[in-house]
Amino acid sequence: MKAVTVTPGQKNSLQLREVPLPWVEDVPDGRGVLVKVLRAGIDGTDREINNAEYGTAPPGDHYLIIGHESISFPQHHRGFRSPPGLCAHPHSGSRHL
């Protein structure tokens, strides 16, 4: 899948990158939900991360996926029932968006 990423600590490292598709099973305690992102936005927090003001990559990665402002629909989940037309808003700081 494509994602907008930065290399934490490296100013102006924003890039569009091909990254592995996440798995619901990657999220502990069965809380994972894979969403289809229809639209994503970059906000002030993302700008600050791209300016190397803060931000860290998840363990095992050297980049951070940004763009937590999105309109998304649940696609695959474990134990989560989504009513038709439910729109999801991912939590900030999630490894996979």
Secondary structure layout:
Layout: E1 2-6, E2 15-18, E3 33-41, H1 44-50, E4 64-65, E5 69-77
Antiparallel strand pairs: 1-2, 1-4, 3-5
Compose a concise summary of this entry.
The chain is mainly beta.
Percentage of residues in DSSP E strands: 25-35%
Mean pLDDT: 81
Give the helix proportion (percent range).
under 10%
Total beta strands = 5
Terminus-to-terminus distance: 10 Å
Query: What is the radius of gyration?
Result: 14 Å
Q: So what's the overall shape?
A: globular
Order of helices and strands: EEEHEE
Q: What low-confidence regions span 5 or more consecutive residues with pLDDT below 50?
A: none
Structural class comes to: mainly beta
Number of domains: 1
Strand arrangement across the biggest beta sheet? 2-1-4
Please explain how this structure is put together.
- The protein is mainly beta and 97 residues long.
- It has one domain.
- Helices cover 7% and strands 30% of the residues.
- It has 1 helix and 5 strands, in the order βββαββ.
- The chain has one helix spanning 44-50, and strands at 2-6, 15-18, 33-41, 64-65, 69-77.
- The protein has a 3-stranded antiparallel beta sheet, with no helix packed on it. A two-stranded antiparallel sheet has the order 3-5.
- The mean pLDDT is 81.
List keywords for this structure.
mainly beta, two-stranded antiparallel ribbon
